[in-house]
Amino acid sequence: MNETATNTLFSYSTTEEITVFADLILPIPVPRLFTYRVKRDMVEAIKVGARVIVPFGKSRVITAVVAKLHNQPPQNYQARYVLELLDEYPLVTGYQLQLFDWMSTYYMCCIGEVLNVALPSGLKITSQSKVQFNPDFDYPELLNEQESALLEQLKKHPSLSYEELGRLAGEVNVPTLIKSLVDKRAVIVFDEVKEKYVPKMVRKVKLHPNYEQPEQLLALLQRLDKLPKQQEVVMRYLRHVPMQRNPALNKNGLDKTILNQDDELSQSSLGTLIKNEVFLTFEVIQPRFADTFSPQKEIKLTPAQQTAADSIMAQFGEKGIVLFHGITGSGKTEVYIDLVQKVLASGSQVLYLLPEIALTTQIVVRLQKVFGDKMGIYHSKFSDNERVEVWKGIVSGQFQFVVGVRSAVFLPFDNLGLVIVDEEHETSYKQHDPAPRYHARDVAMMMAQWQQAKVLLGSATPSIETYYQAKQGRYGLVELFQRYGDANLPFIALVDVKRERKQKTMKNEFSSVLYEALADNLERKQQSILFQNRRGYSPYLQCEDCEWTSQCLNCAVSLTYHMRAAELRCHYCGHKETVPKVCPTCGSTKVKTVGYGTEKLEDQLQIMFPDARIQRMDLDTTRAKNAYQQIISEFEAGKVDILVGTQMITKGLDFDNVSLVGIFDADRIIHFPEFRATERAFQMITQVSGRAGRRADRQGRVLIQTGNPTQPVLQKVIDNDYLGLYEDEIGERRDFNYPPFSRLIKLTVRHTDQRISKRAADRLRAELAEKLGDERVLGPEEPLVERIRNQFLYDILVKLEKDKINVKAVKTFIQERITDILTDKGLRQVSIVIDVDCL
Ligand code: ADP
Ligand code: ZN
Ligand code: ZN
What we know:
Elements: H1 3-9, H2 15-18, E1 20-25, E2 34-38, H3 40-43, E3 51-56, E4 60-70, E5 84-85, H4 94-106, H5 111-118, E6 129-133, H6 145-155, E7 160-161, H7 162-169, H8 174-183, E8 187-191, E9 201-207, H9 214-223, H10 228-240, E10 254-255, H11 256-259, H12 264-275, E11 279-285, H13 303-316, E12 321-326, H14 332-345, E13 349-353, H15 362-371, E14 375-378, H16 384-396, E15 401-404, E16 416-422, H17 440-450, E17 454-459, H18 464-471, E18 476-480, E19 491-496, H19 497-502, H20 512-523, E20 527-531, E21 540-543, E22 560-562, E23 567-569, E24 576-578, E25 591-594, H21 598-608, E26 614-617, H22 627-636, E27 642-645, E28 658-663, H23 666-670, H24 677-689, E29 701-706, H25 712-718, H26 722-735, E30 742-751, H27 754-772, E31 777-781, E32 787-788, E33 791-801, H28 807-822, E34 831-836
Parallel strand pairs: 12-17, 12-18, 13-15, 13-16, 14-15, 16-17, 19-29, 20-27, 20-28, 26-27, 28-29
Antiparallel strand pairs: 1-2, 1-4, 3-4, 3-5, 6-7, 6-8, 9-10, 9-11, 21-25, 22-23, 23-24, 30-33, 30-34, 31-33, 32-33
Helix pairs in contact: 4-5, 10-12, 13-14, 24-25, 27-28
The chain binds adenosine-5'-diphosphate and zinc ion (2 copies).
One zinc ion (ZN) binds near residues 573 and 575.
């Protein structure tokens, strides 16, 4: 820009007036935007949706996103300068800004909290960030001198903090430097609190770039005429990497093991070639679904599936949202694939949401076989770098299709054509902690509506709320009640454990019926799945002589006994204790375990069936990054006879050799004190049952152990009577004015002093009820676990009817009342958690 011109243009104004200001979203829990000044040289380049680095507080720097640009200096503080502009092009789309704003209002949280959850750490460098060398990095030629020097330093350390980097880098601007290294994929940025990403490496080889051109290659081969072994190794490489035709293929190289797999001679020849630098070796991160890139057979929908797919498309003509109600094993995934292909072909983007746990497994492998590397995968167990790549891949157009968990709703789509929410009834779509406490299905619907995309909700056991919308005609409804390949739904039977206990035919926790069935299945070399929705060995210990039971110090719950780890553990706060040898109260040695979890079942099984191969799958056995997948693939490969697990085993798994499913403790699932308990029980039991009998040539069996076989919900499970369940449930919801007839907002008041907590809760309730009316404000009530981490909890439930109420105004009112209480000196340290649409 011409300096003089600028000066004349603004010669009458003070500098203050011509300054451009940026309203920024900072990823912190503060309920407002922050205004910063934009330096002159940044004015042209800065855009709404770009990231910037700004100072915050005394010595922190933080990444923020531009929400607005304007000329109004802030009223009550001196705006500080934006330090750096990180993006030439907006990294956050207009739709996303709209979404963040909507979510903060709807879910009653700070927009910064939304941003914080939305952006992967790799996209928000802060002074708390840590940086590590990316072992996958293979392009040193991209780096400038300074970056190379820094990278050498980084290699020597497991990771470096922001400050340490600053010291090593000297005078330069650290955020910009880090950003450049991130862009070049040379480093990985992570939050200190998070687990560090340890990738699995594969050794690869490629030809030295000197031989990439055809004539060079030819010369090499001629030179090797006299060394036939070495020539053969090069030829083998060329068979796998046909770079004669396309020299660029060399860059990706070839798995080293492929070159030297069969004989020793080729190994030593390869060794020589590497020594002579004909081949170069390098390492890359093993893709998580390494063996899945074989292109897939053409999928062909069955006539029933085709009808369903056509009907979905037809209904999309009139409705934005369609519910796809298909029984377990009906092949919903195949129908999704068909639709995704259609939408992608039309040039629009597709988002496919899956519950957390299902994403590491079979479904993704199936999708990947069809869509290959055109599909992005967004998963919380993936490293941040991978998440960043998916984000950028969407912006750049590399990924038109992403399959992901709930946080994938935050990705920068701007041309969505279709959103699929698989297993839409899954509660894991709702984020519990921290804020925003959003429901990914509902957020996805909002996003889809803005972008005029269609939404397909799929489930074998739809949530009552969703089914109601379909019944009302607000959503379309498509049904598929036929299993793929003529497989039948499993035969389900109830086993009366009370009676068996009386008759003394139980073997520990196993009824004789289940025991016989398991023995039978082992004999026939078929696999079984056992479901007990409780991990650990037993939910508590008890002294037979006095009243003592194992209790958590910090929470109002018992400590679960974990035999393998030889510990008592609190499942709420993580507190751990060693197992007492004698009763801590009376010294008695008669301390026994009460109740049973997956660990105990596993133990009893091993005693009853010493030769059976038994595997347990619950939170405790799947903590390591690939443990879950490993268990699944071993089971799939037939290396395990009986799989014992918690609800992890219910989700979307498809094993064709499983012919028996056993369900323990059904009563506990049914009698959970919550208005959705029956619905949940039906869903959970039906989903686990659905793992059995996926083959046409054999009938699957499900045995449900219960103390009360006459419970109506169990009968509905047996009859596969979803509609019956729905009719019952919707009646009750109507009678008691629960969702879908109302909206719920749960307010949880917390304080370490029970009296203060109660006082705050009473006051909040009273103030809310005064305006909203007693019938709309319930509580305060102590939740099931009334003390967690030494905080005493009280729940207040606000119930708002669906119409005739200005929900937005009510939310503002609630927020005001809460702020009022939180700023009351007498109620210091009280915290109030707001959960909109609580589950
Ligand atoms: P759902 O998700 O409805 O429980 P899946 O999509 O897992 O069912 O399908 C069950 C099994 O049937 C899977 O192994 C799937 O590969 C197979 N299957 C379903 N439809 C087809 C089809 N049209 N062609 C080939 N295999 C299919
Ligand atoms: Zn005792
Ligand atoms: Zn605890």
